[in-house]
């Protein structure tokens, strides 16, 4: 089987030296285990954080070990009473073409509600992040204005649609004209702003948010967030989901201090990880699946093909080369 290991801890943007491809034997399952063939591998921005050795909410990746992350695989041999050949499962065993899993390491997914890949996206981790970050922290009310950065990505595209379901006015910020068109024409955001081509994001926000900003769902941090924070209303809520603009920085990210703004506006800024809401996942999953089936939620995936393209796909996240969830298809079911 093929595996991708963390060869060295990146400084700045990861490159080919960060990763090492190796081949090794496929282990045979013992009692209580299943042999899995990888179908889809998820690449996610948080993985960049695990490549360095600093304390966080998940342990850093170990050097010369497989890069762990979300995977969908098919059971090709089962020595477990809970799984049969052909079952499709989700697990966190990472960048490898086969894996022998203990039955407790993976969970069977429903193949019938939507394509299996959605369990890594809108029906999985990124969908749940959008759902809980927006509804538990952002708490948008009807008629309020919600601004989302990283709006055309896996999390952002779902946040905007849920905010529309809740009756908010929704403004997305993203990095290409194709993304802007996707947000306004297909996802029916009220406005979308291309931060890469605008001459003044602040002025565009003034125009797009005549009543100010009540909820700012922040996926990116940096200068985009500085511009949005200048527009927040009294009692604004600001879920801090991600700060991708800083993940590859070598030094600290510097910018305006936020305390005065938050005090003047009695605003709430709260960081979170999706795992904070683990005991509510069943509720979130049911709502997301229901909205998807009712056509109230749409999704797009950017799917790269081939195991050897996983590192490039991961790096694409930082270049903005994806609309919706970025996945790598490793094998056909
Ligand atoms: P996306 O699908 O949104 O992909 C990343 C996107 O980020 C790119 O497409 C790009 O879009 C944008 N981007 C990349 N670099 C920059 C930059 N320097 N400045 C501004 N935008 C940039 O990824 P996800 O939806 O999976 O994740 C979105 C955010 O949410 C990330 O910050 C991630 O770490 C965070 N996250 C947090 C979780 C939590 O539990 N708190 C869980 C999951 C994700 P563009 O073309 O618009 O620049």
From TrEMBL:
Pfam families: ADH_N_2, ADH_zinc_N. The keyword Ribosomal protein does not apply. It comes from the Bacteria. Gene3D superfamilies: Medium-chain alcohol dehydrogenases, catalytic domain (3.90.180.10), NAD(P)-binding Rossmann-like Domain (3.40.50.720). Keywords: Oxidoreductase. One of its GO terms (molecular function) is oxidoreductase activity, acting on the CH-CH group of donors, NAD or NADP as acceptor. SMART domains: PKS_ER. This is Zinc-binding dehydrogenase. It comes from Gracilibacillus salitolerans.
